[in-house]
């Protein structure tokens, strides 16, 4: 019985050491993969989230302003059309068709 316990204890210690080593290796592999991704992303010239949010907000405000200006243009065109209909049309001027006098020399 004593021999079996020693073998089991040794096997347990070896297994625990292997698991600890595997856990450490996993941490190192994760760190290496993370560093590689960060290096790749740094070379891609991407914008930060803050920069994206600022540009997004500016684009939304610009779109709202465009909509307001389009509505104002439509209103002004409507007013112009009404004013054109209400204004009297001037009579067309007739050009005098008198021929120029010829000078005899």
UniProtKB/TrEMBL annotation:
What does the entry list under GO cellular component? cytosol
Ranges for the region named Disordered are: 85-105
The protein's name in its UniProt record: Pyrroline-5-carboxylate reductase
What is the protein's species of origin?
Answer: Thalassospira alkalitolerans
């Amino acid at each position: 019985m004593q021999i079996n316990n020693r073998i089991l204890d040794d096997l347990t210690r070896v297994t625990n050491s292997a698991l600890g080593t595997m856990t450490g290796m996993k941490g190192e592999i994760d760190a290496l993969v993370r560093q590689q991704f960060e290096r790749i992303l740094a070379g891609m010239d991407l914008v930060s989230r803050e920069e994206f949010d600022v540009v997004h907000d500016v684009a939304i405000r610009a779109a709202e302003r465009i909509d307001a200006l389009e509505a104002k243009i439509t209103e002004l065109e409507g007013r112009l059309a009404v004013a054109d209909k209400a204004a009297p049309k001037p009579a067309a001027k007739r050009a005098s068709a008198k021929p120029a006098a010829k000078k005899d020399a």
